[in-house]
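My hope is that you will study the protein record below before we discuss the fold together.
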Amino acid sequence: MNDDSRLFYAAFQQAAAALGLVIDAARQERMFAHYLRVVQTNKQFNLTRITAPAEAAVKHYADSLALLAMPGFQPAQPLNVLDLGTGAGFPAVPLAIVCEAWSITAIDSTGKKAHFVKGVVESLGLTNLRVRHARGSDLAREGGHQFDVVLLRAVTKLDQGLTEAAPLVRQGGCIVFYKTPHIEAEELESAERAAAQHGFQHGAHFDLMLPSDDGFIARRLIRYLKS
């Protein structure tokens, strides 16, 4: 085990414990393999500004799994999930590694990013994750795409995300945004209007703290339910 892997695993385990999660060594190794591919590919084109092992372990991997600390999401519960704007594979890849019962679709509008995540899926053998170079609007136009959960992590404002994701959520399903607690009142008000327009209710928000070398990182998950 080299220094990078030691830093990654130590930071990840501490943050996962704060979420009440116990992730086995084999799954952590798959996440670290993804991390190494991110760092290597980042030298060719920009995937993320977060590349230090401990920082990435918390701000990308543990953060992606924060959904599992929110009431109503269990790894063994079969779910059909869409990661809208996956980037380098967050939160899709960590969730696919941990939640083998979930069927996850990850899309991104940037072809290079979608191609990168496809390579990760193949190398890690993630049979429950499929990747497409597409936008949410592309899936909506195609029709036939209905998900239990649509995830948006650090992608767009709440009202814009609601509008794009709304046609892709089945009745009784939900949209979950990964945000920080510091959201402008104007953004929240616009989101409430968009939610009402598209038949959603503000279900709940869930605040959590992730321990890191820089201190605690405040995160907020915001859920909208399709009524």
About this structure: The radius of gyration is 17 Å. The chain has a mean pLDDT of 96. The longest strand covers residues 200-212.
